[in-house]
Amino acid sequence: MANTQRTKMTRNNTAVLLIDHQVGLFSGVRDIDLAELKHNVVALAKAAQVLGLPIVAVTTARDSMWGETIPELKAVLGNMEILDRSTVNAWDEPRFVERVKACRLKCAHRCRRFRAGKKASSRSSRSMRAVPSAITSAKPVSPALARWASK
Question: What's the Cα-to-Cα distance from 12 to each of 7, 18, 24, 98, rounded to whole Å?
């Protein structure tokens, strides 16, 4: 087994991706109480805002099939644009991938600004290359994400 080094999640290398938190999709959830699920999702979004983490939200077929983002989450996100896509896998949507890459650039800029005047260690350099880590979807990581993270 290859020796893989883990990177500690910090606000400089982490983003929260909120994928498919839609009214129509919540109706199919059976393994957790819907009130608890909504509470957890809203709490995650609020925590991300308090910590200054970038948030990217995306839906699938909002106007034709699965409906709007749950109102509780929309209220927390305020005027933030929630992308809508027609693809099943969010990583197949170029606009979503670009938003995630933009988060990576913002995180790297924040990290450089924080370290200004300090000697950069090899560990902090590695953490700047880390893929945004907090993904709130049960979907498996796609090969496209793996390729992007290895760049």
Answer: 11, 18, 34, 18
Q: Which residue has the tokens 């893929």?
A: 131
112-122 pLDDT, tens per residue?
A: 554 454 443 33
| Class at the top of the CATH hierarchy for domain 16-117+127-149 | alpha beta
Please report, for the chain, the start and end positions of each structural domain, with discontinuous segments joined by +: 16-117+127-149
Query: What span, in angstroms and rounded, lies between the C-alpha atoms of 54 and 145?
Result: 17
pTM of the predicted model over 0.70: no
* Closest by CA position to 89, among listed 29, 149, 140: 140
Tally of residues, the chain = 151
